[in-house]
Each structure stands twice: as structure tokens, then as C-alpha cells.
Amino acid sequence: MAVRLRLKRTGKKKQPSYRVVAVDSRKPRDGRVLEVIGTYDPRQEPSAISIVNERAVHWLSHGAQPSETVSKLLTISGAWDDFRSASDPTAAADDAEPSPDVAPAVPVPDLVLDAPAEGDDLSPANAAAADAEPQNDGEDR
Predict the structure, then answer these.
(1) Domain ranges across the chain
(2) Where are the alpha helices (DSSP H) in the chain?
(3) What φ, ψ does residue 87 adopt, rounded to 5°?
(4) In what order do the strands lie in the sheet with 48-51?
(5) Is the pLDDT of residue 111 over 60?
(6) For the chain: N or C, fewer Cβ within 10 A?
């Protein structure tokens, strides 16, 4: 069974409010749900979002896929961050500030090309003239 975290519409006509629910993806929008994990009221100023983060993390860790809107709500409520830190212990370490005494790793490029100096003019005419006459560096041979 494919579980989705999505919105279930409630409220009167022209006055929507929603429940954040875990539901079988094959069920209709307002059909039978597995569990109600929160509410969302977009008509309040600011919008009222109430999500039980533990239950949201539970469903996400068991493979539930959130809809686009629910994923934004989970980010706002903090459940998405809880899920990421619970599923990947290195993600919490990556989000942490690096310690100031450790220098950041500098990436080493695979290929280094010779870049022209700032004063060099490499227009096609000057490049051909530079190839034709050898330069003397002050050494006699």
C-alpha cells in the first residue's frame, strides 16, 4: 500500500480548512484515512498550522510520500527537519556550524589550465605574433 501525506478538505462552502492526513494513495481526497496528523487553516492571518511532528516523522520514516503542499507545511512546522535528522545522523552534523579552528577543505581541481596574466592581450593577431618571434629572457645560449 502506497501511503501519502496530503490534505483532506473540511469546512463550509467558500470557507475551507484542511486536515493533514496519512492516506492510501488510491483513496479519494475526502475518503477514508489512516490517521489525522494535523490541521491547516489558510483563512486565518497568519495561517494556522498544527502538526503532530512525531506522527509525521513516523509516517515519513515508513515511506509515506508528502504532497507538495504538505511538504511545505512539514518544513514550516519543523517535522521535515526532525525526519532528516532522525533518518540521517550525518545531516545534523552537516547543518552544524564548522568549528573555527578547523580550516575548510579546499577542493582541488582535476585539470589546471594556464591562465593568461592580467596584462596579456591574447587577441588573434597578437597571439600569432607571439608565436612567430621567440622571447629572450635575458639568458645567452
Answers:
(1) 3-89
(2) 53-61, 68-77, 79-87, 89-95, 124-132
(3) -85, -30
(4) 48-51, 35-41, 15-24, 3-12, 65-66
(5) no
(6) C
Alpha-carbon distances, residue 84 vs 38, 80, 103 (angstroms): 19, 6, 26
The residue length of the chain stands at 141
Contact 73, 6 (CB under 8 A): no
Task: Dump pLDDT digits (tens) for 9-68.
Answer: 999 999 999 999 999 989 888 888 899 999 999 999 999 999 999 999 999 999 999 999
Query: Parallel, antiparallel, or unpaired: how do β-strands 3-12 and 65-66 relate?
Result: parallel
Q: What Å distances lie between residue 32 and 52, 79, 92, 108, CA to CA?
A: 19, 24, 36, 55
Superfamily of domain 3-89, CATH level 4: Ribosomal protein S16 (3.30.1320.10)
Q: Which residues contact 50 (CB under 8 A, 6 or more apart)?
A: 38, 39, 40, 77
What residue has cell string 639568458?
139
Q: Using alpha carbons only, what angle is made at residue 42 by residues 36 and 46, rounded to the nearest 5 degrees?
A: 115
Bridge partners, residue 18, by sequence = 9, 40
